[in-house]
Amino acid sequence: MTSPVSFAPASSSSPEAIRVVVPGSKFSGLSRAELTLLRRKQSKLAKNASSTFSLFTGKHIRNALNATLIFAQYEAGSAVCIDPAGWILTCAHCFGDDEEEYKTAEKRRWLLFYTGLAVQVECRQWDPVRDLALLKILAIESDAGKWGDIPTFSFVPLSPCAPTYRDAVVCIGQPGRDDLESTSSRRTKYNLVELSEGTFRGMIPGADPHENFEIGTMKHDAWTYWGHSGAPLLLEEDGTLIGIHSSWDDQTTMRHGIPLIAIKHFMLQQEQTVAAVPSTLTGLES
What we know:
The chain is of the alpha+beta class. Helix content is about 15%, strand content about 30%.
């Protein structure tokens, strides 16, 4: 089993500082109920970390597991790290369905890796049309490393080219705990982090790939549940990112996501924001 983060001595070219929080601390911005839920999720993840890791086979897919995060809040949600300095992608609607909701939403959230490792993130860019949000890790709960060391995070690179029809894909994300298919109040029995396999099923014909606010324009058939929003969609053969799961069509049961071209254009627009993390932009074309 490998860790999603490693520590190294700081250098003159070190990126934005990330605060290290002592394990067991009371996290800022969380109510007692929210902190209790976070600790409950954290404990369950840590307990099952070895068995979760064993379910993921292959170097690329295990790296993707290390780079995937889940929201600690009740509403669930998923995310993926795309740069070793702690830059993360998720869906814009995880922070608000519209501008009015986003303005009043808490911009800082706590996320968890599959090991239970907790990080605090801040939403730096929010694009409701593409349904993408760019987050930055601000703090990490850890007793690893020495004082002043810089954390480096596992990440998945963006695919250099778009997938072809029926390419095998993998989705890693957090299913919600409420059973929406039950007529009574009931909890699901899903793991906090689930791996599903499927295929790329093309794009919505005639749709603008940058307009994903109603439904994602990319189609796939990997299993998802509510809470998977923001989960990475990866090429099975190399583990590169080809999309972000966002939605599903309740008429066709087809799953939908934000396509690679929308992600690349979104990231190119954030060049000023991510100036300190050039690997995020390596190989991107408009």
